Structures are given as structure tokens and as C-alpha cells.
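Troubleshooting entry. The earlier prediction with EPZ gave an output that would not parse, so I re-checked the input for stray whitespace and re-submitted. Clean input:
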Amino acid sequence: MSGVLEIEGGRPLAGEITVRGAKNFVSKAMVAALLGESPSVLSNVPKIRDVEIVADLLRAHGVFVDHDQAAGTITMNPSGVGAAKSADIITHAGSSRIPILFCGPLLHRLGEAFIPDLGGCNIGGRPIDFHLEALRRFGAEVAKEPDGMRLRAPKRLQGMQMELEFPSVGATEQLLLTAVLAEGITELRGAAVEPEILDLVAVLQQMGAIITLETDRTYRIEGVESLRGYRHFALPDRIEAASWAGAALATGGDITVLGARQLDLTAYLNYFRKVGGRFDVTDHGIRFWHPGGELRSIVVETAVHPGFMTDWQQPFVVALTQATGLSIIHETVYEKRFGFTKALRRMGAQIQLYRECLGSERWCRFGRRNYEHSAVISGPTPLHGADIRVPDLRGGFSHLIAALAAEGRSSVSGIGLIDRGYEHFTDKLDSLGARYWRR
Ligand code: EPZ
């Protein structure tokens, strides 16, 4: 992805910005619209690349999609749904991970589906074995083709039982989106319960689905004959909110994130406070600021909800380079999520990676294997400007923050990747007083 920002850092970011709907919910709610027999309307939709990709894929399948970008509303009418031309699908190969979620809805609507090879950030192996096992258990036939995956449903998909080895977000969504129209009852144990998934459950419930969530991460879904469209206001993007909070802490700034919701950020706010940041919850959002003085080092382990999200870790690491003492981050969701720290080290940060599960009482899935999935950050270290390249979405945003915190000039290339998940981020940098130039 192209685009270079020249950043003159070393100034606190201060001001107000707004976050809209969560990328990792909006894209899935758009796929859910395929299941309805009448139009769906989703609002609070951000203008980001992932939304455009899903809109294009829906259109390729005959769904009428009207995206009013100013209002942040998308209307989707699936009455003309039909098979897409393979060529229109293949152009999206490698662009995102969302296409895998089209499987169940397309199998229900058309009896077949063609899914392009998946993309998404390079942060680990990212297998899809749970998805494929689930689809086969529902009764789908799956075959690999040179440019993607072909699926068929010889008859109506059937409810089934499955337990996930790990509470995968995507696999949980796959099961929900498929089970709602399958015949009979589906039971999913060991599932993910992220707020974005619960918002998807709310959408499906509006459409007519019957879904129960038990206290032990088990979803029980009673399949129904048909679903209708929905009207829904997307929950706010808690990853973007935490990214700007990290920027406030790392630059010694003061950022009010309008639209941020405390309920979705409980784990994050605890760590933000422990490290020495301050926050104030208002009716319209959350103000995050650095109160001056020293930040404290801490130990953090990333986890599935309700733990500290893996996607919060990267901007937080930049802030921890300014904390006094040794901080430890143990990453338990993705095996290769510290690639972004290489650039931070070139900017003066002292970060050491380890294969062991540091700061944790038990071994995670990546312990005793060859993955550098624990980081020790020694601070405070002044950061200085450097030429850096965006490696992935969240790592890339952390590079931006590091460049904004660093003394001197940085050149950050590949910033087009950040448009995948951060709406109007350069406008937001303007309103926070950042000094940068596009090249
Ligand atoms: C979603 O990815 C998000 N992406 C990710 O956000 C987020 O980091 C992740 O959930 C965890 O919260 C979207 O929602 C589009 P997973 P997903 O399935 O669903 C393993 C961002 O920057 N696994 O929960 O792909 C997998 O390898 C992105 O916004 C299997 O082993 O994540 C990983 O170790 C990055 N087999 C773990 O589970 C499978 O079949 C969690 O992955 C599926 C997953």
C-alpha cells in the first residue's frame, strides 16, 4: 500500500476526535444482511477500506448496496442475490479475512459459494481449520481451487455440535451466521464472546434468529425457516478508541475520544490507569490524558474477551517505552504479533523479545514453541525520528504514534494500510495538532 507521511514529532497530541462503528463488527453485520429476505439498514458505519471491500463483494452477489458516506448509513437489499462471476470475486483475493464469512449465508441462499483466497494482517499463521470443520459438520462440501475455495450444500444445512479448541472470533461468527438458518439446533462450546460478536447476535436476533448464550461460553442456536432485514446502530470501535488513548499517553497529550464506550474498554482502562494515565468518562465519550510525571511499568497478558485485547497491545507498547522500569507483554492470541517492535527499536526503544511465556503463571499455546511472543520493554527511552514502513494495521498505527512521540522527523511509508481500519486518520491528526506532510 502506498503513501508516505513525513512527521515532525515531539509534540503532545491534544484535542477531540470521534470514533464511529467498529470495523470488526460492521463488516460482519454487512454479511448478515445476505441472510435476510428484506433490506437491512446499518448506521454508524465508518468510511474505511474493509467496508468498501465487503460492499463490493455483496454487489458482486447481486445485493443492492447504497452507502451514504456522509450519514454513515448503508442500505443493503438482498432480494436479487445470485451467484457472482468468479472474476469479480478473485479480484478481492488477499484483501481481507471477511470473505470466509460469506460461506454460510451463500450456502443457504444459493446452495453454493466461491470464496477468494484470504488476506488480512501477517501476524501469525491464521489457519481456517475451525471454519472448515464447522462448515463440513453443517453438511457443506468444501473443495480447494487454484484461486479460492468452492463450497456446495447438497441439501439444507443441518444443526450440529462443536467445541472450539480456542475461542476464535471468526469461527464463532461463522457458526452463528450459518446456524441461524440451518435445520434444527446447533450448539457451540468454547466460543468467543467479544462485544462485536454480541452486537452481531443482536442483529441476528432482530432478523428473527433464536440464539441463547450460556454462562460457560456456549451458544445454542435454534435454526429458523427464514430471516428478515434489520435496522441497527453499530457499536463503537473500541480498538480505534484505545489506539488514540495510547497516542495521548505516548505523546504526553490529552485526547477526548467522542463515541468511545466505557463498557467495551473495561480491561483497557484498568491498565491505562495502572500505568499512570488518567481518563474521564462523559456522556459523549472518554477523555484520556497523561497527567505529567513518570509512567509506571506493568505486566500485561493479551487474551480473548473479557481480557486485554491483542489489538490494544501495539499502541500501548509505544506508551510503555516511556514508562519507568521493565514492562512485560505476553501475547497469547497471535504467535507473531511483535514484528512491529523492530522499527521501534530503531527509534531508540529498548524492547527484547522472548519465546517463553513471560509474566504468566501458565504456558500459552505458543509456549515451548519457536515463537517470540513475549516482549520486555525497558523505559523510559527517548525516541528519535526514523524512516519506517507500516507492517500491518495495528503495528502501523503504533509506528505513527511512535513517530509523533519521537524527537525529530520520521518518514512513515505504506500508510495506505492504515485506511483499512482508521477512518479519516489524517483529519484526526490535524485536529489533534500533529505536524506532518503527505509525500
Ligand atoms: C478477529 O480476527 C479480528 N479480525 C482481529 O482483528 C482480532 O485481532 C482477532 O479477531 C482477535 O480479537 C476481524 O474481526 C476481521 P480469531 P480473527 O479467529 O477472527 C486461531 C485487526 O487488526 N485460529 O479469533 O481472524 C488463530 O490463528 C484484526 O482488526 C485457528 O487456529 O481471529 C489465532 O491464533 C487483526 N483456527 C486465534 O485463533 C481457526 O480456524 C484467534 O483468531 C481460526 C482461528
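This one parsed fine. Residues 23-24, 97, 121, 124-131, 166, 168-171, 239, 310-311, 333-334, 393-394, 421 surround EPZ (CB under 6 Å).
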